């Protein structure tokens, strides 16, 4: 399984055994799955960067692909239609040959201005419906839920200052 994305996938700032893909591999192993999760995350990547490098990443000939991109696009203020076009290309190439794809959506922190969470959610759902992929609507949902005033630790304890890069405690909630 190719896990294709940005720093959230790569595990930027985390020890190699504590990032998202390492956590996923441990979960797969615990389930007895005969699967290998391949980390194709690249810190700082955007949907456009992913559009450029997806063919190269598919050289691993995965049986399935997880696509997690968009956080850096939101941070840079890119327009949703441009992000959606780039993700269209990525998903189309990832699905080539009948591979199943899991699209992982991201909702930026609520402190970001000018981005409608409803519009972002609608984009993820449109892409998943258009390409008939599985959808995890919001990778951050467990992190934000655990950060609530009565439900868990403060956001700073599970996220770094950007609120977009997880600390080890945060990656295990994803």
TrEMBL record:
Pfam families: Lipase_GDSL_2. The lineage of its organism: Bacteria, Pseudomonadati, Pseudomonadota, Alphaproteobacteria, Rhodobacterales. InterPro entries: Ester_Hydrolysis_Enzymes, SGNH_hydro, SGNH_hydro_sf. PANTHER family: THIOESTERASE 1/PROTEASE 1/LYSOPHOSPHOLIPASE L1, THIOESTERASE 1_PROTEASE 1_LYSOPHOSPHOLIPASE L1. Gene3D superfamilies: SGNH hydrolase (3.40.50.1110). It comes from Paracoccus cavernae. Residues 3-139 form the SGNH hydrolase-type esterase domain. This is GDSL-type esterase/lipase family protein.
